[in-house]
Amino acid sequence: MDLRRLRYFVAVAEERSVGKAAERLRMAQPPLSVQIRKLEAELGTPLFRRGTRGMDLTEAGLALMSRASEALALAAEGVEAARAVAAGRRGRLSVGYMFVLASAVLPQLVPELRRSLPGVDLDFVELSASTREPLLLDRAVGVALCMPAIHHPEIQVAQIGTQTLMLAAPARSPLARMTAVPVDKLQGRPLIALPRPEEEPTSSAVAALLRRHQVVMPIISRVETVHSALGLVLAGEGLSILPACAKLGAPPGIVFRPFLDAADTIEIAACWRRDSSSQLIRTFLKSAEKVVARI
Amino acid sequence: MDLRRLRYFVAVAEERSVGKAAERLRMAQPPLSVQIRKLEAELGTPLFRRGTRGMDLTEAGLALMSRASEALALAAEGVEAARAVAAGRRGRLSVGYMFVLASAVLPQLVPELRRSLPGVDLDFVELSASTREPLLLDRAVGVALCMPAIHHPEIQVAQIGTQTLMLAAPARSPLARMTAVPVDKLQGRPLIALPRPEEEPTSSAVAALLRRHQVVMPIISRVETVHSALGLVLAGEGLSILPACAKLGAPPGIVFRPFLDAADTIEIAACWRRDSSSQLIRTFLKSAEKVVARI
DNA sequence: CCAACCCATACGTTTTCGGTATGTCTCATG
DNA sequence: CATGAGACATACCGAAAACGTATGGGTTGG
């Protein structure tokens, strides 16, 4: 069975005429006539009654017609669906993100993506430093917002923005009165830390900053989320050092201050498998850059 | 879009390997590989990821796959349906019958047809002499049981059996005591007649019989059905002359007697358009002959 | 009786398809 | 590190299928 024959058959059945159908198919009438007869020979039964004024479906032809036109429609739909997926007009995209970005980026990124990728099923997955790489390689996530980027031969990276590390302090703290805080003012003060560097690379950037200035801050507690860290800071338990984007979604009563003598930055990057469908990723990148630029 | 390509695609997707699929399709591996690449070129997007250990559907491929396999199944089903209809294993057959045959033939014919044509939608249509020809020509009925046959260049006829005309009389009538009745004994007796010859050819056979023997029977009433005629005979209104098959389904109290000096017969024939699907008709004929032989 | 219309057939040309031989890449193994 | 196996890709050639043009045959309507 050849789809060409089915298409010809459906055209003739619809036009009730070989000549008309040939015109519609932009071919000459004789070859179409031949194809129809070949189809009939293949099925071992006439599909049309030849009248003097055109062709008319037999019962067998009717039985074939209903299925054939559906099959053609399905095939066309399949082709269209594949093209749509390839073009990023339809499909699935699983977006991973490092949790420090959740409160700052997601509220704006999610609606932006739904706008720029209509017809695409989006889902969002929280990542940690240890899970992000295998999830990307397994295609469990299509693209990941990382801070900082992943380096791996199979993974492609696009820098989307950078974040400065800032001090988060209670508004009533004496440090809050300075517009910029010297790092050594932090000496000995209790630190509310994010998870260990193996899970959360931000923590290693913070550690590097303090080590460079030979400042020691005792870690009074490690928390899982930026929200918890900010809550403890507000409670007066200590200070925290976070990427600037954590400011978004921070409750009143907490101020963020840059450092006077340090401007350590962490890059925000999108990471994806090199062989992933490129169009979806490209659209994602545009949206993500737009959102991150507004932070 | 060519169905061959879709079939190849589905095979490769299912086997997750060009080589395996080629084996299943009984062809060499290289041409299959070429066809897959042509399909990808046609769609403008890769459908597979080529790994070292086989092929793996991309998202676009997945989108195509679900529709393509359905489309193939539908096409195959369409082909099978057309073949089944052609072979008489499935389809529709509208069976027409002259009403005089209804009580005698239908009770046995209907179950016999349902047995011999399983999967065929049967329906039964009552015909009169004036409607049977146009209904056959319009294909509103596929085959008609006629008494007698129709003669028309487009209509084919097969004789199935013959019916002798018999006298139907009340059991208490003096005529009932004879094993065979001379026609001239009917002279002047009231006749319960079926519809006029234009509608019911049996009536013209009856008229011919009487005319040949120069017997006149006043028509005391014309009725539409054999049942009505028998009812009136039983009521003592008069006599009736009917095909022998009317005996079946006649109430007790009515006897059928042959004529001593006449054996007029009417043929029972099946009639159908020459161009109708032959297999259904052939099976119908076998069943009808079997049933009529038992009358 | 002829012109118009429609489908069927014949034949030469072109396109496409399938098979064989071979290349390339990756992985596993000694 | 070399090598061999396994998988897909490429190149080329012969065969088959499809297409177009020209033409035939049957029916309808003027």
Structural class call of chain A reads alpha/beta
Rg of chain A (C-alpha, Å): 32 Å
Number of domain modules of chain A: 3
Most extensive chain contact?
A: A-B, 41 and 41 residues
CATH topology of the largest domain in chain A: D-Maltodextrin-Binding Protein, domain 2
Number of helices of chain A: 9
The unreliable regions of chain A are none
The H-and-E topology of chain A, N to C, reads as HHHEEHEHEHEEEHEHEEEH
Q: What's the average pLDDT of chain A?
A: 88
Short description:
The structure is a homodimer of 295-residue chains. Chain A is an alpha/beta fold and 295 residues long.
Q: Can you give a write-up of this model?
A:
- 2 copies of one chain form a homodimer.
- With 295 residues, chain A is of the alpha/beta class.
- Chain A has 3 domains: 3-87, Arc Repressor Mutant, subunit A (Orthogonal Bundle), CATH 1.10.10.10; 94-160 and 270-294, Periplasmic binding protein-like II (D-Maltodextrin-Binding Protein, domain 2); 161-266, D-Maltodextrin-Binding Protein, domain 2 (3-Layer(aba) Sandwich), CATH 3.40.190.290.
- The first copy, chain A, is 42% helix and 23% strand.
- Chain A has 9 helices and 11 strands.
- In chain A, strands 3, 4, 5, 6, 9, 10 and 11 form a 7-stranded mixed beta sheet that branches. In chain A, strands 1-2 form a two-stranded antiparallel ribbon.
- In chain A, helix 1 packs across helix 3, helix 1 crosses helix 4 and helix 5 (102-116) crosses helix 9.
- Chain A is rod-shaped and about 100 Å long.
- The mean pLDDT of chain A is 88.
- At the A-B interface, helix 1 and helix 4 of A face helix 1 and helix 4 of B.
- Chain B binds a DNA duplex (30 and 30 nucleotides) through residues 4, 17-19, 27-35, 37, 50-55.
